Amino acid sequence: MNIWRAVSFVAVLLNLGLSSQPARKITVDDLMRLRTIVDVKISPDGTSVAYAVSQPSVERDAHETELFVAPAAGGSPKRLAPDTRIFTPTLPAPRLRWTPDGSRVSFLSVVNGRPQVFAAAVDANAQQITSAPQGAFPYEWAPDAKSVAYLSRDEAPASVVTHVHAPPPSTRLWVQPLDGTAYVVVTPSAHYVDSFTWAPDSASIVYSAAPMSGFTAPYYTRLFRASVGTPGTSGTLGTAVTPIVLIDRPGMNTMPQFSPDGSRIAFVTTNERVGLLAPRILAVADLGVRSGGASAPPSAPAIRTYPMNGAWIGEMTWAPDGKSLYVLMNEGTFATQDHMFEMPIVRVDVASGTSDRVVSGPIVDYSMSVSRDGRTLAYREVEPRSMGEVIVRDVATGRTRKITDVNPELAQFALGKLEAIKWRSFDGMELWGLLITPPVDRGPEGPPLRGAVARSGGDFLSAGASAKAEAPPSSPRTFPLITYCHGGPIGGVTYGIFPQFMHVPGQIDPYPVEALASAGYAVFLPMPRGGSGYGEQGHRAIVNAWGEADYKDIMAGIDHLIAQGVADPDRLGIMGASYGGYMTNWIVTQTNRFKAASSSASVSDLTDLYYLADAGAVMEEYFKKPWENRDSYAAHSPITYVERVTTPLLLQHGENDPRVPLASARKFYEALKALGKTVEFDIFPRGSHVQYQPVAERESMQRNLEWFRRWIKP
Predict the structure, then answer these.
(1) How many helices (H) and strands (E) does the chain have?
(2) What one-character-per-residue DSSP string does 359-394 give?
(3) Given this structure, which CATH class describes domain 130-155+167-306?
(4) Which has more pLDDT, 440 or 138?
(5) What is the pLDDT of residues 434-491, one digit of tens each?
(6) pLDDT at position 229
(7) Where are the domains of the chain?
């Protein structure tokens, strides 16, 4: 498959007049053909941008990825390494990097079923760089380009039995010189390494590691420093020495990044808190200043934190002058109220602690990188009605240039109108969500408004309108309403075509919201307390209380839309996956207002999450251990009230789901069947917590669309 050839062909058709044809409604098959930019990396000199484009192939049942390099100033992209298969463990993971001299782009391909680092220049064959016995993932070039560091697991011993809770093979840090000498194992087997950074002089590496693996391991990480060579010599790497502890304190301490001059380390931390609900904030350790004064050991650098109102940092990179960091975060100062659906690039001044948005407007940014001179940023930017494109930004002037158009066919579709709305819950708390209404003739209003929000009283206003002004609901008629409960609980939605999954190829979403809107349904995506957007206090509002205030928040939002004349009270549906699946199951046991429901990767018995899932610590954080809180576990489990269900329910589940065990859905199904309720159950034999195979992705989306069409007429 040649994605770029297909994109270019579509673009030509549009230029020949296809865009002048009447816009048509979007289908599940249309959604399956959309492409996602999964990685972006600017060259050191800022003149070129490498990026990866993924598209699901139903015919080959695979997410297929192609690599391109485009001029940062704009122009036609060139295909990179067309004969190489990109590493795709579940979804594409190319891990794009430029070699330090900027002459080639490196990425992860597959050799004998294992990931290895390759590098290629445009119009040249790819060269294999690593030969890790168990595969290399992730990896980073040494700044002097003489070696590559990567993570790899130790080989698992052959065994005929699985010993429960036996430690798995260690994930260790390796260094492979490029002069032909043998690779070096840098870290001990007791360290499960999750991230690392090279020192600018290429002589040492700082890495994050926990004493165990598993879901809770990141909350027990420390930072260590390992010497792997001697600067100023020929660059030959010798035997690794015992690492020293650099940051030794409780909680999460991960994602280290050396400052350009090597004097500081930026990292993400829960600031000595071990709990899963603790914010993951930015911190900077000054390697030249000791936290305890002159008498402190060298391994105790002074640490400054940058809370930014409880930010959860997802990405960060130093500005080349070392005075500031660029970060992406989905909680905190820049992620509240009508901005909670955004994720802008933010610049944090290290000295003053001030933070400012670099990118404004209703956008979501991913995969940012900066040129070596600090003048140019490149990143993927998602607008409300898009799949995201590569943007190049002049840091000094703020001028931007879109250098890709990977989904030109979106112009031919009549997409639903997307708006941010707000309402008041039962206790007066202000809540927010997204509303997608069907594509209909709106007369002079024109296309969907960017940044439209609901102000006081819930009325819709276009961007820039006075908050005091009032306007009638923007919907021209009443629609059947399908409410989509997000996963998490600490989760949420963003702008984009797949509002829950814009950070990955969105086709893993079982609920095709755009196809539902095209079929005539309004889709409501509420952000109740417990999820993102309301800070740690909001997260903790549902401790020992799933299905209480969060349920009331969702219902208050639905009632608001009914009062606004948007939703038909007699044509309501409900759906959700993971925690959203729990919420869907809960809601149909608490009310009979919904005419149909669909629940994916869902929970019916909360004790199953503690005893059978890979993330039992989540339940301990919210409800304690089951034997310590038996009554509450039962009181908040949908299966306790299963006999109340009257809503026709579709259950979907991956057979190999490690996060929410299949048993929990089967329990609910068997109880409902025994009670004579209307229920159907689909199990995906190769499925996990979400579906990663395009055939299953399409089936899941189409099945849900048909389910709601069956019970709720548009």
Answers:
(1) 11, 38
(2) S-SS-EEEEEEE-TTSSEEEEEEE-TTSS-EEEEEE
(3) mainly beta
(4) 138
(5) 999 999 753 333 333 223 333 222 222 222 222 222 233 444 589 999 999 999 999 9
(6) 55
(7) 130-155+167-306, 311-410, 478-711
- Calculate the alpha carbon distances from 352 to 119, 256, 306, 314, 355 in Å: 40, 21, 10, 22, 9
One-letter amino acid of 230 = T
Chain centre distance of CA 302: 31
Which phi-psi region, left, alpha or beta, contains residue 457 (left: φ > 0; alpha: ψ -120 to 50)? left
pLDDT, the chain, mean: 89
- Both tokens of 510, joined, read 């079982």
Count CB-CB contacts under 10 A for residue 253. 29
Instruction: Please tell me whether the peptide bond between 489 and the residue prior to it is cis, using omega within 30 degrees of 0.
Output: yes
What CA–CA distance (Å, rounded) separates 540 from 557? 21
Residue with tokens 């050839």: 5
Report the alpha-carbon distance of residue 252 to residue 327 in Å, rounded. Answer: 18
Q: One-letter amino acid identity for 280?
A: R
Inform me whether the pLDDT recorded for 408 exceeds 50: yes
Give pLDDT tens digits for 586-607. 999 999 999 999 999 999 999 9
Helix axes 579-590, 549-563, angle to 10 degrees: 70
- Determine the length of the chain: 714
Q: Once rounded to an integer, what is the mean pLDDT over residues 627-639?
A: 98
CA–CA separation, 392 and 381 (whole Å): 10
- Tell me whether the CATH fold assigned to 130-155+167-306 matches the one assigned to 311-410: yes
Q: Which CATH number fits domain 478-711: 3.40.50.300, 3.40.50.10490, 3.40.120.10, 3.40.50.1820?
A: 3.40.50.1820
311-410: CATH topology: Neuraminidase (2.120.10)
Among 283-292, 339-348, 373-382, 390-399, the minimum mean pLDDT is found in: 283-292
| Greatest Cα pair distance in the chain | 78
For residue 365, give Cα distances in angstroms to 74, 77, 257, 270, 453.
19, 21, 20, 23, 20
Q: Compute the average pLDDT of residues 239-258.
A: 89
